[in-house]
Design goal:
229 residues; alpha+beta; six-stranded antiparallel β-sheet; two-stranded antiparallel ribbon; 9 helices; 34% helix; 17% strand
Length: 229
């Protein structure tokens, strides 16, 4: 079993999961969120026999919310949802994988993705049959973002990408249509998480007019239906 990366590994040019440059782009608590989430799949041997994957499925999960994971609590609390992360399933040869924006945009084995979630719980949503023809093009577009850094500011741009934005961008590129409802930060229950927002944006800076697509609002898209659990 491959051991989880240590801080020493991350300072090495041969670290197992990410380089010093990748790691150091995240200030303070966000470094530890990224480190924790990158390390967990290596420790997981989870298998899930009840869920039968289909390419294009979107898997939502609750990320670990141990001390220091304030961003996870902020995402779930401000949206009043258990969904703090999501990714899209695809098949590569005989292997099932998930493309996701966590740390950098990357491809993760399906079992590792499931094993990372809090209690290994996840929710799978599937596109309506009439929309499935767009999945290959959406995946091609999403893979163009591979390697881009994570965006804890939740902005719509192409420089850094957050989880639900990755899927939203891919679908928009393939269809010209939105997937789910775009909301503003000010529409969410953000008040309790003001310190977290200011840690990202700077003291006194609350971009309440910033538009974003949250995991919760992506899951509510009319094109999707829940198939697991």
């Amino acid at each position: 079993m491959r051991r989880p990366p240590s801080t020493r590994d991350l300072d090495s040019d041969t670290g197992p999961s990410c380089s010093r440059q990748d790691f150091c782009q995240y200030p303070g608590m966000f470094r530890w969120l990224v480190l924790f989430c990158l390390a967990l799949p290596a420790c997981s041997g989870s298998k899930n026999t009840a869920y039968q994957p289909l390419e294009g499925d979107i898997l939502f999960q609750s990320l670990p919310n141990d001390p220091g994971m304030d961003l996870v609590d902020a995402i779930e609390g401000s949206t009043e949802s258990p969904y703090s992360h999501c990714g899209m399933v695809f098949r590569e040869g005989d292997d099932w994988k998930v493309i996701e924006a966590i740390g950098p945009v990357k491809e993760t084995p399906l079992d590792d993705y499931i094993g990372r979630g809090r209690g290994q719980k996840f929710w799978a949503y599937r596109f309506d049959e009439a929309k499935r023809k767009h999945i290959p093009a959406a995946l091609v577009a999403m893979k163009e973002d591979l390697g881009k850094p994570y965006d804890p500011r939740y902005r719509f741009d192409s420089e850094a990408i957050y989880c639900s934005e990755l899927i939203f961008r891919g679908w928009k590129s393939a269809t010209g249509e939105d997937l789910g409802k775009v909301v503003k930060l000010g529409d969410l229950k953000w008040e309790r998480y003001k310190p977290v927002i200011e840690a990202i944006e700077g003291k006194g800076n609350l971009p309440l007019d910033r538009e974003m697509i949250t995991p919760r609002d992506l899951a509510k898209a009319k094109e999707l239906k829940q198939v697991h659990p």
